[in-house]
Design goal:
With 291 residues, the chain is of the alpha+beta class. The protein is built from four helices and 14 strands. Helix content is 12%, strand content 19%.
Length: 291
């Protein structure tokens, strides 16, 4: 399945309409994120890409349209300090998260700033894309961003109320199933899963719906405005967020998530960010409505 005029786009997997139990009542959830209560939600049929949109796919979009991302227009984006050279000059950080550094010239094609590039990362998820950038790509590819409810239904892979897309155990049989931080965050990453930054979008086994890396690797933008009380709103059929807001929903966690501070690589976990923001651990996947 591709865009109407044959432009390149990720492979999409069609999911039939149905109901599932969304959210969690688990104590490991974050109350301020509004993960619960668990509620039965009905979602209509839709299609979603088997992987996050890759650097190569985004490059096709940019080459075809001349699109400039928000990071390119702003002249900077946020990079994890641990991926920068030891002699990288001091830059502005984030007060609540000093491991983030604002790097001039960082963008989707220069993920660690000037002098870096995406060689060898064609099959990695595109990063340093804002919500606006993701929406622009999806429109060009003949689709849209998934709603938060669609994203969670897809991520669960048919497993009702499992903690992860593959079950309840993080590393079943000692096998890593997602790209997250191992060690002591943010000072030591043992990279036991084989990666210190992003990994190819089809790394690890697919979930029950044939979708890869629904948790870990990079956060993924959703269409909805974020509302910490959405679970209590009463919306149960194709729910969406409020009509307006200050931040958009992100799902899935990233290669920087660790249980010591951000165990949001669980399927029910949620977070948010300003729609104009971009970071080195935030991407998206494509969705499309099915008649």
């Amino acid at each position: 399945m591709g865009p109407p005029d044959g432009r390149p786009a990720p492979e999409l997997v069609e999911l039939p309409g149905g109901t599932f139990l969304m959210g969690t009542d688990s104590a490991e959830g974050y109350p301020e994120d509004g993960e619960g209560p668990v509620r039965e939600v009905e979602v209509g049929a839709f299609a979603i890409s088997a992987t996050a949109v890759t650097t190569a796919e985004f490059a096709e979009f940019v080459g075809s349209t001349g699109y400039r991302t928000d990071a390119e227009r702003f002249g900077a984006s946020f990079v994890f300090a641990g991926l920068l050279p030891d002699d990288f000059p001091p830059t502005r950080g984030v007060v609540a998260a000093p491991w983030w550094r604002e790097v001039e010239g960082a963008s989707w094609s220069c993920p660690e700033g000037p002098g870096s590039g995406v060689g060898g990362r064609a099959d990695h998820p595109v990063v340093h894309v804002s919500w606006h950038d993701a929406v622009a790509y999806c429109a060009w590819a003949g689709g849209r961003l998934p709603t938060e409810a669609e994203w969670e239904r897809a991520a669960r892979g048919g497993l009702e109320q499992a903690r992860y897309p593959w079950g309840d155990e993080l590393t079943p049989g000692g096998i890593h199933r997602c790209n997250i931080w191992q060690g002591t965050f943010p000072v030591r990453n043992t990279a036991e899963d084989g990666f210190t930054g992003t990994c190819p979008v089809d790394t690890y086994d697919a979930n029950g719906f044939g979708l890869y890396n629904m948790v870990g690797n990079v956060w993924e933008w959703c269409a909805d405005w974020f509302d910490p009380f959405i679970a209590r709103s009463g919306q149960r059929t194709d729910p969406v967020g409020p009509d307006e807001g200050g931040a958009k929903v992100m799902r899935g966690g990233s290669y920087l998530c660790h249980r010591s501070y951000c165990e949001r690589y669980r399927v029910a976990a949620r977070s948010s960010n300003d729609p104009g923001s971009s970071t080195g651990n935030l991407g998206f996947r494509l969705a499309r409505s099915v008649a």
